[in-house]
């Protein structure tokens, strides 16, 4: 079973970068989920898919995986490109587009 080591992105409800500095080790599912015929719920016999391990650094997560003989894949995070712009730039004389209300 392969584990995925990554740093989760912020949720859609977050405007800042809180809780995005820790690394997560998650197991990938071995087999797809099945629909239970009686109730129609989705179920899985894979217990490792419920396991999530949090680490402070990527090195700690990789060291844990190698120490326990877990095959892993590291996904590097994509950093957001921030463009700073002042409110006054909307009204500057050299603005490319025409300003309207």
TrEMBL record:
<keyword id="KW-0809">Transit peptide</keyword>
<keyword id="KW-0472">Membrane</keyword>
<dbReference type="GO" id="GO:0016020">
    <property type="term" value="C:membrane"/>
</dbReference>
<protein>
    <submittedName>
        <fullName>ETC complex I subunit-like protein</fullName>
    </submittedName>
</protein>
<dbReference type="InterPro" id="IPR038532">
    <property type="entry name" value="NDUFS4-like_sf"/>
</dbReference>
<dbReference type="InterPro" id="IPR006885">
    <property type="entry name" value="NADH_UbQ_FeS_4_mit-like"/>
</dbReference>
<keyword id="KW-0679">Respiratory chain</keyword>
<dbReference type="Pfam" id="PF04800">
    <property type="entry name" value="NDUS4"/>
</dbReference>
<keyword id="KW-0813">Transport</keyword>
<keyword id="KW-0249">Electron transport</keyword>
<dbReference type="GO" id="GO:0022900">
    <property type="term" value="P:electron transport chain"/>
</dbReference>
């Amino acid at each position: 079973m392969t584990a995925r080591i990554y740093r989760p992105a912020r949720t859609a409800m977050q405007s800042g970068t809180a809780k995005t500095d820790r690394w997560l080790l998650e197991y990938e599912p071995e087999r797809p989920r099945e629909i239970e015929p009686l109730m129609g719920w989705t179920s899985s016999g894979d217990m490792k898919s419920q396991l999530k391990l949090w680490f402070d650094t990527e090195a700690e997560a990789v060291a844990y995986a190698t120490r326990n003989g877990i095959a892993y894949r590291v996904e590097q995070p994509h950093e957001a490109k921030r463009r700073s712009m002042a409110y006054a730039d909307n009204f500057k004389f050299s603005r490319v587009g025409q300003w309207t209300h």
